[in-house]
Specification:
Elements (H helix, E strand, L loop, with lengths): L1 E8 L13 H10 L4 E11 L2 H4 L8 H6 L5 E10 L2 E9 L2 E9 L9 E8 L7 E7 L4 H18 L6 E6 L7 H9 L2 E2 L22 E6 L1 E9 L12 E8 L2
Parallel strand pairs: 1-2, 7-8
Antiparallel strand pairs: 1-12, 2-4, 3-4, 5-6, 6-7, 8-10, 9-10, 11-12
């Protein structure tokens, strides 16, 4: 069984510094990756003002618009809620999503964060694959507490080595995630499997910082790539990451 996945912070469908609405270009770039599972951060679930300012603003929530006709199953977790809308994380899947839950791990009211956890029925895998889309806080203390909450959740809900994929924007430029997630959950980082540091993914024009991650358990990684530079840098300030997985026997 092979599984191709992607993680991408899509900046609510706007280019760097909010110069342009790029959600239509974003949809085409995502489709070009030909992936089975997509882990998205900063997804605009609702914004009452954008349709008034942009004639081609999608009529459906961003995760539904991006998934249309390709990924037939979606899950969304709204984290930041405001008077005119909300945004959060989303998972798009070619395979059946059996359950979805969004855990609030916000450290304070000025920075809303959540863990979107889905169980997905992947053909060729005898048990549901646990998939978690994350976008962690900007402060080191917040990230540590959020990763501990993540580890505690998966120890409880995905025990005994159940197949597990955790991906997203960790904001973890000091690479503290390995200390918590790899040690407690038995995960490996897709680009190095513990041998090298995670990939540089920010800013997308010429990445310097290691913010975005893919962690897996129960899978071998046959290939992992960072998608940066043109045309990706015109879509988001983060690079997209992809990984090709094969189920361990």
């Amino acid at each position: 069984m092979k599984l191709r996945i992607c993680t991408y912070n899509i900046h609510k469908g706007f280019s760097q510094f909010n110069r342009r609405m790029v959600v239509h270009d974003l949809r085409e770039r995502l489709r070009s990756l030909d992936v089975d599972l997509v882990f998205l951060q900063e997804v605009q679930g609702l914004h009452l003002h954008h349709p008034l300012r942009h004639a081609d603003w999608p009529a459906h929530p961003q995760h539904e618009f991006l998934a249309e006709d390709v990924w037939h199953q979606t899950a969304y977790g709204g984290n930041a809620v405001y008077d005119h809308g909300h945004h959060g994380n989303a998972i798009l899947s070619r395979h059946a999503i059996l359950s979805a839950d969004n855990q609030d791990v916000s450290d304070h009211r000025f920075e809303r964060r959540g863990l979107l956890h889905c169980e997905i029925a992947v053909p060729g895998v005898d048990t549901p694959v646990h998939c978690v889309c994350v976008h962690l806080g900007l402060m080191a203390g917040s990230r540590r507490r959020q990763m501990e909450a993540l580890a505690e959740r998966m120890e409880r809900l995905a025990p005994d080595g159940a197949p597990l994929i955790i991906a997203g924007d960790f904001n973890d430029w000091r690479n503290r995630a390995d200390d918590i997630l790899c040690r407690r959950l038995g995960l490996v980082e897709a680009f190095g499997a513990g041998r090298v540091r995670p990939p540089r993914s920010f800013p997308s024009a010429l990445p310097l910082f290691r913010l975005d991650r893919i962690y897996v358990r129960g899978f071998d990684v046959s290939r992992a790539d960072v998608h940066y530079g043109e045309p990706w840098s015109r879509i988001s300030d983060h690079a997209a990451l992809t990984a090709d997985l094969e189920r361990m026997h």
